Amino acid sequence: MPIPQHSLLSPIIMSDPVLRTGIYNITCPILQEGSFVGRNTREDRSLRPKGIVSLPPGGQPAAWNVEQLEGGRYKLSIGGAPTGVINNALYAFLLGEPYEEWIITYRPNHRAYTIEKEDMRAGWVMPSEDDYTQIAVRPLIVGPSFPPFFPPTELWKFDRVLMD
Q1: 58-103 pLDDT, tens per residue?
Q2: For domain 10-162, which CATH number applies: 2.10.109.10, 3.30.70.100, 3.40.630.30, 2.80.10.50?
Q3: Per residue in 29-61, is it b (16+ CB within 10 Å) or e — as a string?
Q4: Which residues contact 91 (CB under 8 A, 6 or more apart)?
Q5: Nearest 5°: CA angle at 28, between 65 and 105?
Q6: Per-domain residue ranges of the chain
Q7: pLDDT at residue 24, rounded to an integer
Q8: Who contacts 3 (Cβ-Cβ below 8 Å, separation ≥6)?
Q9: Which of 26, 86, 119, 132 is most exposed, with minimal Cβ within 10 Å?
Q10: The model scores a pTM over 0.85
């Protein structure tokens, strides 16, 4: 039986909730079907940090490099640029600024992940379902239940992609 051909960014289904080093598309459950998060395709050409935003459906999904580090930490890069926080918002750093090492935790009751700073005092939050909304990094709201409940604005889906 021939192996199916996939485009550069074809998602494959993951059965293992542990993220391994690889290329992924990232989305948030509150976004429209076919929307992803990434750098704006119409960003300025300066070398200033670039905001990470929700991208509208119909465009090319953003390819994220997820690098698994020691101690359950991850380096998340997009377009070759690692990510970090400026003024409680998520950015990609182009000039070697200190980047964030993220804690990514699978939440089985949501079938999604939370992404938190290494100190776990703040995490990724999608403030709005509108296109081109920048991802905020702020304290996560955790519902008092077992297992913990997180609002959909704080949950993230990772679809691993095959490279041709």
Answers
A1: 888 899 999 999 998 999 999 999 999 999 999 999 998 999 999 9
A2: 2.80.10.50
A3: bbbeeebbbbbeeeeeeeeebbbbbbbeeeeeb
A4: 49, 50, 51, 52, 83, 84, 85
A5: 65
A6: 10-162
A7: 96
A8: none
A9: 119
A10: yes
